[in-house]
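Inputs:
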Amino acid sequence: MFLALRELKHAKMRYMLIALIMVLIAWLVLFVSGLAQGLSSDNASSIQNMNADYLIVQKDADHRLTRSTVPEAQLADIRDFAGGSSAAPLGVQMTAVTKAGETKKLDATLFAIETEGMLAPPIAEGRMVDEMARDEAVVDISFKEAGIALGDVLEEQMSGQQLKVVGFTKGQSFSHSPVIHVNFKVWGSIKSAVSRGGTGDGLQYNAVALQAGAAKADQIGESISGIEVITKDQALQGIPGYKEEQGSLLMMVAFLFVIAAFVLAVFFYVITIQKMNQFGVLKAIGASSRYLARNIISQVMTLSVASLAVSIALTYGVAAILPAGMPFDLSPQLVVLCSVLFLAVAVIGSLLSLYRVVKVDAIEAIGRAA
Amino acid sequence: MNDKLRMENVTKVYGDGDISVKVLTEVSLEVNAGEFVAVVGPSGAGKSTFLSIAGALLSPTSGRIALGGEDITELTPPELNQVRLDKIGFVFQSSNLIPYLTVMDQLLLVAKLAKTPRKLAEAKAKELLQRLGLAHRRNHYPDSLSGGERQRVAIARAWMNDPEIILADEPTASLDSDRGRDVVQMLADEVKLHGKAAVMVTHDQRMLDLCDRVVQIEDGKLFE
């Protein structure tokens, strides 16, 4: 550290510039990561927060809840294997609603659940839908921003079904739209209104949620034909746009890391080349390669840690003034993960310089008028 | 153990096979404590190679070399590194100070490499700077020093670890003759004061009267 700090202090301008670049890159990394995380939960928090381990969907539905249908009869089969309370049916329908008396449409996704079963979401305000009610719903709290309050009535677009808001949930969204939870009575009447025919063949579900270990899940998957048991993560990937959205953000972050590595590598390489003669002198007066290598590493580390600290502060600062609707969610774990990766990348970037320093021959110092 | 540097039949050959060049041939030299030896000779005669071998920067092709009584012919590069740190003080052609260290830190760096306790190192550095008339320049950077001052700092740095021998590579090359003479005088005084040894490679004839002994290198051979 003796040489490292004194050099940083002496060549402030030079190192400030590189630190500035690192701050900007790290800032962007953190910001995009937070955005990815935020979008991910904005997109699919209902699935992420779902109190289940697996989802059973129709085979060949491509892991998409919205494409899959599981008939009522199959639910009974599944329950035979899994035990009654650890399998719960789920209906998913993307739709739009309007507040009664208004014409403005609001995107929403209907989730039909057994209101006393394991899929019932925690209620943040109001109460849960009654199992027997014919017109009740609990809606995600983001509906409040659209001016929906407890007791308001929403009208479902396809069927004209009236839904009375009796409660609010938190963090329930699917495919970027807030989720409305209803019971299967309401679900049934919406479905029959849409198909305009009888519902003679019983209710159709989109999926069955399952609480079970891997062995049980495999067993069910093999025993019942026409279904597929997928993990929650696979179900997430099956949400339209989820994979593409996360994939492109992840690619940006990956590129930023690569760019950071190269920027650092080039900067320290050029500086090292410039100081070859100096390193020769240092070796001639007895500095070991290890000492000089440690010196470079500690410079890289000092710069990276300082830049990271600044960019973390900047990221949280900007996050604080973002509008509330902006999907941004940066957990401390994610910050730590990004920081560790960033430091690792910085060290990798300095390897080229270390190699040059190790190769410097002390004899460079002799017979040179520098 | 009076000989600080002993070279016996040292030969250095660069390259191999058909294109080998013999730079030093059977060079033998002994430098005793308190002795200040000048090595002169035309360019290309092998002065730099001679100094590099004496300074444990290069290994000889054949022959033996001992520093302060310790044979260093067979040592590995990391061991040679340690030898340079403990036993040799270098003064280079253009002082080669580290640009981002103050005069004081130039000296402390050497102590730090040798893991000398800081208090001790500071006292020693202060004393050296005092003696070489650099006390008032302690917190200056090399770029604000004159050429002579820089060379004096280099001499102070070379003495920092109490080496057996000082090796100077044309220390006066970048100085006018008065300044150069001051610097060499200082080197000579230090050698006498501590009972150490010094070898100076130079082609500056005006400095030779300050040395105890002058040896000549010509075509890789050494003459007394």
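The mean pLDDT of chain A is 88. Flag for discussion at group meeting.
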